[in-house]
Amino acid sequence: MDIRSTFALLILFLPLASFVLQIFFGRRLGPKGVWISVAALFATLILAASMLATVVLGTPMDHHPEVEWFSIGDFSITLGFQLDNLAVTMLVIVALISSLVHLYSVEYLRGDVRYTRYFGYLGLFTFSMNGIVLAHSLIMMYMFWELVGLSSYLLIGHWFEKDSAASAGKKAFLTNRVGDIGMFIGIMLFWSVTGTFTFHGLYELVDVDGANLFAGQMGLLSLAGGLVFVGAMGKSAQFPLHIWLPDAMEGPTPVSALIHAATMVAAGVYLTVRLFPILTPAALLFVATIGAITAVLGALIAITQVDIKRVLAYSTISQLGYMVMAVGLGAQQAAFFHLATHAMFKGLLFLCAGSVIHALHHALKQRNDHETDAQDMRNMGGLRSKMPITWITMVIGALAISGVPLFSGFLSKDAILAGTLAFAGENSAWWAVLFPIAGFGAAAITAFYMFRLIFMTFHGKPADAAVHAHVHESPPAMTGPLVLLAALSFALFFTLPQVNPLNSEGWLTEALPQVENLTGHADLGVEHLEHGWHEAHDTAVNLSLTVAGGGILLAVLVYLLSLINAAAIARQFRRVGLYQLSFYKFYFDEIYDALIYRPFLWLTEVVAWLDWNFWDQWFIDGLGRNTVRGGNASGWLDYVWLDQYLVDGIGRLTQRIGATGRKLQSGRVQNYLMWALAGGMIVFFVASQL
Amino acid sequence: MDSLQSYLFISIVMFCLGLYGVMTRRNGVAILMGIELILNSANLNFVAFNRFGGLGEHLPGHVFALFVIVMAASEAAVMLAIIINLYKNFQTVNVDEAHEMSG
After folding, report:
1. Rg (Cα) of chain A, in Å, rounded?
2. Nearest to A115 by CA among A208, A37, A60, A225
């Protein structure tokens, strides 16, 4: 077997082995046993990193082994790997975040009731996620897609004793299912148009002459692409299926970092990047629109949230919208770049939040305070002095996500913004300009709410001095991953061997070049678009620096220096209803409640009523009643007619015949003789007549 | 008067007298006597048909009559035995009184 396939198999199945081990032997191994899982995950990290190293050192990966799974007639479904640069890079991201989260969780969940099971589920998740990354076909990806949904459900509901956690898990699963149905239909449509499920099969078709090959089926292909993207919308929490992600924060914070920030929600973006070559202009425009709406919406909601994890959740939604928008606008490379950098700094931010929550939770517990919410930023403040490592790493994360130079987010965000500008520049339609507006607007808001979070958490006066006194910095198993991820949030790591804080060119762009789309993008050649980027690059840098600086400055003024009274501004906005709109998350849950949930409940009640009254009581019970009635009638017939009349009648007739006939036997010889004589006479008579 | 009809006539009269006796008499012995009359009327028929039937030298009718006489004799013996038994059981020779088998 090829060494690359062996590595891929190991990367895929080591986490599964960890899952099996923890689920079946976890109790016997005890809490120390989770180190085996941690070791397994670090092993996958080493394997993945070594594969990436070969790619970076100049051997592009393009390997797609497959084995037949089953065949129907001439048509066979295969299982296999799509091992290309994209998959390898993604594998490293997944392995890195997953192994760090494993390590972090050892400390974070210490003493948890389902400690080992938690690690088992983490293993299951990593297995599924690696499956998505390695899958060589849409069918295989769909399988792992569902497995990821399952493990996400299990991890969100880790503390299922809490109602909110249990229902958050259900909400996440069901919302994802909505997307998955679209995705499944999309996969079938893709197959009906192209006749293949495998990615390399699709790529080959596009390479040959995609635009002419599918000239007559562009509409169907657009629909297929749009529907598969609906699946990505579910996983990547895109508007309007984003509602599950904030609720998913009920899960343990490391889970939020791994699944709901860095990897699983990136699966949708990964899928869209994978399918980018075969997406039609119409499908891409749909993707871009959804992404732009999500980016702005998530950012707007994040401004007013007070739960530290929810701010990060909406921030994630917004950033995912960024990536999706970038793919839709043709900047597939920038989208994946942002995915990679975002995985690092958002994982970091979540783990920092986890560290804060962990510390605060323990401080509150020491004071026997079970009422105060350890995740509410209003209960924090002034933690900088107590948790210096968490503080400094979280500031690095915030700087990265805000797009400050030297940090990774600057490069990737800048690439996306340049993409939006290029798109607007090349596209003469009036709405094209909305994409850069959305991009820069969301960037400004992002910078603002991230520093709002930093200042509310770490600066200012402590909300409760007594609790504050009990706060301690987290143990090394937790701060270690923070420091590592903070280091990886510097731009340097993504541009080596180039060292230019303003230019994103480096190993990543080298390994993952911009690829040809089916038709070029929106009737423009990719070269054309790339040319546009170079032109837009400087504008994008200047503009993004301005908006990021503006956002941070505003946050400094409002929350650090208190020069502007936040409450007064909130009052102003509340007057026109904008504050409530953001605070209540644009009322999405309420809208879904009114438009889907309640009509659905009403429908179920109607159906239940029909089922009970019409079907059950009328039809089924009616059948029963009529059977009883029929039984009674046939019983009556049987008894009265058959039994009494016919059977007993024959008996009676026989009796009567007997009663009559016995009179013939009078016992008088002369009588018999007379009968004999009469008989003889009759015989004679008959004989004489013949 | 030497013709078949006259013999047959006599035979019918005898048969009817015998039948009447059998049908009307209650006494078993009288019934037996009636039966004898019937048998003898049959005998007369046999002989008469043999005489006037053109059989010539052959005498089957006579032989038949002889057999009937023998049978009548044995029948009378059996019948008398029955009547004696009847009398033993019922203290009567009237057959109509022995109707225990009536339905």
Report:
1. 37
2. A37
Cβ contact, residue pair B95, A668, below 8 Å: yes
Please report, rounded to a whole number, the percentage of residues in chain A having pLDDT higher than 70. 96
Mean model confidence pLDDT for chain A: 84
When pLDDT is cut at 50, 70 and 90, the band that residue A524 belongs to is very low
Interface touch A677/B19, C-beta < 8 Å = yes
Q: Name the residue among A334, A204, A214, A205 with its Cα closest to residue A269.
A: A334
Tell me the C-alpha distance between A679 and A597, whole Å: 98
pLDDT digits (tens, 9 = 90+) for A591-648: 888 888 888 889 999 988 888 888 888 888 889 999 999 999 999 998 888 888 889 9
pTM of the complete model = 0.75
CA distance A476 to A107: 9
Distance from CA of B88 to the nearest CA of A (A): 18
- The domain that holds B49 is classified in CATH as 1.10.287.3510
The token pair that represents A71 in the structure block: 């065949």
**pLDDT band with cut points at 50, 70 and 90 for residue A679:** very high
Cβ neighbours of A667 (radius 10 Å): 15
SS (HEC) of A552-576: HHHHHHHHHCCCCCHHHHHHHHHHC
Q: Which residue of chain B is at minimal alpha-carbon distance from A668?
A: B96
Query: SS3 string of A86-113?
Result: HHHHHHHHHHHHHHHHHHHHHHHCCCCC
ipTM here: 0.77
Domain holding B85, by residue range, is 4-100
CA dihedral A435, A439, A442, A444 (to 10 degrees): -130
Q: What is the 3-state secondary structure (H, E, C) of A586-655?
A: HHHHHHHHHHHHHHHHHHHHHHHHHHHHHHHHHHHHHHHHHHHHHHHHHHHHHHHHHHHHHHHHHHHHHH
- Tell the residue number behind the tokens 């690059």, with chain if given: A537
Model pLDDT, residue A361: 83
Q: Using CA atoms, how far apart are residues B89 and B77, in angstroms rounded to an integer?
A: 19
Q: How far is B99 from chain A (nearest CA, A)?
A: 4
DSSP SS3 for A682: helix
Positions in chain B whose pLDDT score sits under 70: 1, 101-103
Bridge partners of A490, per DSSP, are A407
- Token code pair at residue A631: 């039984």
pLDDT number for residue B18? 92
Model confidence band, residue A525 (pLDDT cutoffs 50, 70, 90): very low
| Nearest C-alpha neighbor of A674 from the set B34, B18, B23 | B23
| Set of chain A residues whose Cβ sits within 8 Å of the Cβ of B98 | 667
Looking at the structure of chain B, the number of domains it has is 1
Q: What is the mean pLDDT of residues A190-212?
A: 79
